[in-house]
Amino acid sequence: MKKVLLGILIGGAAVYGYHHVRGSPVAMAEQDTGSTATRFSCDGRTRCSQMTSCAEAMYFLENCPGVKMDGEGDGIPCEGQWCGSH
User: Among residues 68, 28, 27, 73, which one has the least CA distance to residue 49?
Assistant: First the structure.
């Protein structure tokens, strides 16, 4: 039992350390440095479920290749999740 708990503790610490060093997309999106170019960066995410805000989805749609966030082709991404009128 002690080995299982130790394994869980070590695994959790490893995951935390990895995300702390790498920087999570959510943390990068929450940085407010005044410019969307410095707040967001193309990092391979392509879908609305991977976004954290309408501003982030707009940045990806306008600046990143291969995104799949504007099914209607109207220039408004993620209308069901982030950028639609509620």
Answer: 68
Write the pLDDT tens digit of every residue in 20-61: 544 444 444 444 445 655 689 999 999 999 999 999 999 999
Per the CB < 8 A criterion, the answer to whether 46 and 66 are in contact is yes
For residue 68 the two structure tokens come to 């799949």
Per DSSP, which regions of 1-86 are E strands? Answer: none
Spatial separation of the C-alpha atoms in residues 63 and 68, rounded to whole Å: 13
In the chain, what is the greatest distance between 2 CA atoms, to the nearest angstrom?
56
Tokens coding 10: 């070590």
